[in-house]
Design goal:
The protein is mainly α. It is built from 17 helices and 9 strands. Keywords: Membrane, Transmembrane, Transmembrane helix.
């Protein structure tokens, strides 16, 4: 059974800011120290001055490793203050909680003699300002992203409705790419298809798309991680059961709990919307990049698209005062720490490379899934995706034009231009 003590106290006291100072935590800690103590005694007792100390060192290292693992287990039962990102989403979050709390926190802590912070009972205009930054920033992000997406649809319109004639047969984009592959040995590609292949040669290497998409994925993964972090932290905040209980700690900036309606509202408007925008921006960015037909356009437009992901930061820096941004930097959430994955294998396995490799694997999987393995998968089956078939067609045209450079890029372009 957990014992509940106020935040900032070690025993007894008021029920305010109740947090479990956990019996489980103490039990695990005591077991850890006892284990270490017994282990060291056993080590000393079983060792002579002439013994090989390699085994002793291994046992000492194992004991230390076990202690670290148990310390990670204890963290599941201990709350800590976790900061928030400085952007328009969290600025809206801070203002809404401050406005919702009103004077409840300051009155509570003054009555109990624990007042230490600078509480901000913000007026309605502060909430309006936070809402304005939030909705304008999110609206611009969605609007610009949709413009990019519809522009990419226009650029790939001909590929979505691509039809080519080969004798009496009408070929789809996937079938045309297979025909180009089959004609590599003979060089007998019809001039109409040769013209389409020559048009793809403005990007000499098909892998250019993959490398730039890798940069785009690297830019977007932190957005998903921040959305998940906010979803988890808001979800784990304690629900206020008594209206007299404060939302803020004695410092006036650490959020201890939320009312259930407020928590639901924040879950929808912060992590859920942020996750939706991240998915939309990521997908639209992929579509926009794969639609480009010049090497320079791929690189330059990928750099320009980063502007879309920074709109929320830009809104805060441009339209919030220095004091407002300082308040946001001091805002903390009092929640349980996120336990590290794979901690059973070791206390720092995730931080020592496994976590980074997992993120890298996710990024590679996303790129291969969107490009069809850089155009390799459509060689086995037609996935029905324009991005797959377009990458497949470009790859086959690259192979064909490298084998028959005099046909794709002849010195006398007159005959080819006639068909193009």
């Amino acid at each position: 059974m957990f014992n509940f003590w106020p935040l900032g106290q070690t025993d007894g006291g008021d029920a305010a800011g109740q947090v479990p100072v956990r019996a489980v935590s103490r039990r695990l800690a005591s077991q850890s120290h006892a284990l270490a103590g017994r282990g060291w005694k056993d080590v000393v007792r079983g060792t002579s001055t002439e013994a090989d100390f390699d085994g002793v060192i291994e046992r000492m290292a194992e004991l230390e490793r076990q202690q670290l693992i148990e310390q990670e287990e204890i963290k599941q039962y201990e709350k800590s203050k976790i900061g928030v990102e400085e952007d328009s989403y969290n600025f809206f979050f801070m203002r809404l909680v401050q406005w919702w709390d009103g004077t409840t926190s300051v009155n509570f802590w003054l009555r109990h003699g624990e007042y230490r912070g600078r509480f901000r009972s913000v007026p309605l205009v502060s909430l309006i300002h936070g809402c304005a930054l939030y909705f304008i920033g999110a609206g611009i992000q969605v609007w610009v992203t949709l413009l990019l997406y519809y522009n990419s649809l226009d650029m790939t319109h001909k590929w979505r409705h691509f039809r080519a004639q080969s004798g009496e047969s009408t070929l789809t984009l996937h079938e045309t790419a297979k025909l180009v592959r089959d004609e590599v040995m003979t060089g007998a590609l019809p001039n109409s298809l040769l013209c389409e292949c020559a048009g793809t040669r403005n990007v000499k290497q098909n892998s250019c798309y993959v490398f730039v998409m890798a940069l785009w994925v690297a830019r977007m993964i932190p957005e998903f991680r921040m959305a998940y972090s906010m979803w988890r932290n808001i979800r784990l905040l304690e629900i206020r059961k008594d209206r007299s209980m404060p939302l803020f700690d004695t410092d006036g900036s650490t959020i201890l709990r939320l009312d259930l309606p407020l928590k639901i509202l924040l879950m929808i408007f912060i992590p859920v919307l942020r996750l939706f925008v991240a998915f939309l921006v990521t997908y639209a960015g992929f579509e926009f990049l794969v639609a480009q037909e010049q090497t320079g356009d791929i690189v330059v437009k990928a750099l320009c698209m980063q502007f879309v992901t920074d709109i929320d930061n830009l809104m805060l820096k441009a339209f919030a005062s220095e004091a407002g941004r300082r308040q946001l930097s001091q805002t903390k959430l009092y929640v349980f720490e996120d336990p590290k994955p794979f901690r059973r294998w070791g206390p720092d396995v995730w931080d020592e490379g496994v976590g980074g490799l997992c993120y890298l694997a996710i990024g590679i999987f996303v790129i291969l899934a969107f490009t069809g393995g850089n155009g390799e998968l459509p060689g086995f089956f037609d996935g029905g995706l324009v991005s797959w078939n377009l990458m497949y067609f470009r790859m086959q045209c690259q192979t064909y034009c490298e084998a028959w450079a005099e046909l794709c890029e002849p010195e006398d372009m007159t005959s080819l231009r006639t068909y193009c």
